Amino acid sequence: MSNINNLQFVKELLEEPEVRNVENLSQVFYKYDYKKELFQFMTPTVEKLLGYNIDELNKIGFQNIIRNQLVEKKSSYSLNHTRIGLHIEENFITYLVETHTGESKWIEDNSFIICDAFNQKVSRYGILKDVGAYIREEKLRQIISEILEASNSEKNLSDLFKFIHTCIKKLMKADNFYIAYYKKDSALLTFPYFVDEEDTDSSAKKLGKGLTEYVLRTGKSALVDLEMDEELRRRGEIELIGPQSPIWLGVPLKIMDKTIGVLVVQDYLNPNTYGPSEQKILDVISYPISRAIERKMMDEDREDMIRQLKDMNRSKDRLFSLISHDLRAPFNSLLGFTEILTTEFDTLTHRDIKEYINVINDSSRTLFAMTNNLLHYSRLQLNKFDFLPEKIFLDELIHSAIDLLKFKIRKKDVLIKADINKEYRIVGDIEMLRITFENLISNSIKYSKKGSVVKVFAEKITSENGDVSAIQISITDEGVGISDDNQKKILNGEMISTPGTDKEPGSGLGLLLAQKYISLNRGKFEIISTEGEGATVLITFPVIKSDY
Questions:
Q1: Which residues contact 333 (CB under 8 A, 6 or more apart)?
Q2: Residue 394 in contact with residue 420, Cβ under 8 Å?
Q3: How many Å apart are CA 113 and CA 124, to the nearest integer?
């Protein structure tokens, strides 16, 4: 059919009584007068399409309800056979309009504009129809394809969440958008992506009775307006958490029929922003989003595992290198002096024998301490340890650690001054903390000079409002100190081995073990030191609230 015939067809349709009066057509036929700047005629179906009748639309102005416009096709041709200079412009335009109810709709306008010899527009005949379903389907297909493609790209999980948000914005308003993810191992609801105009709290939390948890629990999408919200609260299904919005839409993110999270959009101003059509869109798109997130999470888990394995491998190599080096000295002493005692016992004086036995004893203690630390470290690495917290008197704990170091203290001729209030208590695993203080005090002795002092002191730490918030223990020596470079390595969890002031060997494992045990017991580890001027180690533990 030619363009002129198309125009004639529309004109004739407008003259048909059944077209002019029918209300159940899927299209709207209209005639617009440019001189009067109003619609002369529209079929009654305009109310179904836009929510306005012809008078209301002329009053408000059609241009004022357009939110977006796509010119898909435009052509012009003359009508010289009817009148000199008369010509027609044919347009295929797609509009995004806001209806009387606030709903957004994509409509197509196929119109014919008659222009006079001076190129002035005279009138327009056209057909309007709802093409939202078609556009949504096309957009959905495109966006699903883009999301799946993004999951195979080099985007990390954070970038993927941002990309998903951008995709949702192409389909509907999404100024308030978040993705919630349930971590089963920690039983926490986390928010890896969170954008909100009113709420700023995106911290992880235990499962409660919010709308997010409702979707997580039921495994079904929920479109919740104020009436539905009140009904759910009346039934005890939910409780109000955070700012309330007049419309809230959440869909479950599922993998193998198992709900792993929730995708949410909400609007704090317009209760008509979301409806069943938006709910259906998110229901459709939630599956590819879940697959994309799952793929990226698996990629990141795999990368984390590879990184951890590499770190463990480096740690193992470093550990074996240190141990093979530092165990050699005490073993050489043991083998050498036991060999002398075995082969030359009859020729040795009582004084010589006593000296050799002391060396063997010292080497045996060093070996025992190293192997004991190695045993505890291996349990930590394999996650095969018992954590048994209890209330511990700090004075008894530290003095028990000092008692185990009596031989070292006597040999180095170091004075240990411990000033610990007998009433101070902390909560922790007593075996872990005994090993911790034994290693830390042993380290101070190792790097102290003969005849020097090692001070162990404990004090209460108060918060700004005057409440006791923690107990801090300091272990201070007058030894060689720790260089800035080695301090950084220690705090980064690296094992460093430097000989003591009497050439005592060590693997650095004791200090690493102490840091890990302090962390497991909710403590904080710090170093204050200047090379050549001694060192202070600070250990801070939270207090038992009932004690203060």
A1: 359, 360, 362, 363
A2: yes
A3: 4
**Nearby residues of 78 by Cβ (< 8 Å), 6 or more positions away:** 85, 86, 87, 88
- C-alpha triplet 268, 276, 161: angle, nearest 5°: 60
Predicted local distance difference test score (pLDDT) of residue 159 = 87
**Phi and psi based region of residue 51 (left: phi greater than 0; alpha: psi -120 to 50; beta: remaining):** left
- 364-422 pLDDT, tens digit per residue, is 877 777 777 777 777 777 677 788 899 999 999 999 999 888 888 888 899 999 999 99
Contact 10, 127 (CB under 8 A): yes
Strand 66-78 to 87-98 pairing: antiparallel
Residue 78's Cβ-side half-sphere holds a number of Cα atoms within 13 Å equal to: 7
Cα atoms in the 13 Å half-sphere on the side-chain side of 178: 23
Helix (H, G, I), strand (E, B) or coil at 274: coil
Residues in the chain, overall count: 548
First-last CA distance in the chain: 92
Task: Please name every residue paired with 258 in a beta bridge, in sequence order, or none if there are none.
Answer: 255
Locus of tokens 């479950």: 252
Largest CA distance in the chain: 139
Query: Would you state the structure tokens that stand for residue 122, as one six-digit string?
Result: 């005279």
**CA 385 to each of CA 7, 377, 390, 449: distance values in angstroms, whole numbers, following the listed order:** 85, 10, 16, 36
CA dihedral 56, 62, 63, 68 (to 10 degrees): 120
pLDDT > 60? residue 454: yes
The residue with greater pLDDT, 447 or 75, is 447
| Torsion angle in degrees (nearest 10) through CA of 506, 512, 517, 520 | -170
> What's the pLDDT score for residue 55?
94
User: What pLDDT score does 315 carry?
Assistant: 67
Residue 63: partners with Cβ closer than 8 Å, 6 or more residues away: none
Say if residues 178 and 200 touch (Cβ distance below 8 Å): no
Beta strands in 174-297 (DSSP E): 176-183, 188-195, 205-206, 222-225, 247-255, 258-267
Q: What is the pLDDT of residues 305-327, one digit of tens each?
A: 888 788 777 766 766 665 665 56
Q: What is the CA radius of gyration of the chain?
A: 39
Quote the tokens at residue 50.
């836009």
Mean pLDDT of 456-460: 93
Phi-psi region of 247 (alpha: psi -120 to 50; beta: other; left: phi over 0): beta
* pLDDT, average across residues 7-12: 50
Torsion sign (Cα): 424, 427, 432, 436: negative
CB 86 within 8 A of CB 119: no
Q: Which residue carries 């299209």 as its tokens? A: 27
Token reading at 183: 């971590």
Task: Quote the CA–CA distance of 274 and 533 in Å, as a whole number.
Answer: 68
CB 191 within 8 A of CB 204: yes
Q: Which residues of 160-194 are buried (b: 16+ CB within 10 A; e: fewer)?
A: bbebbbebbeebbbbebbbbbbbeeeeeebbbbbb
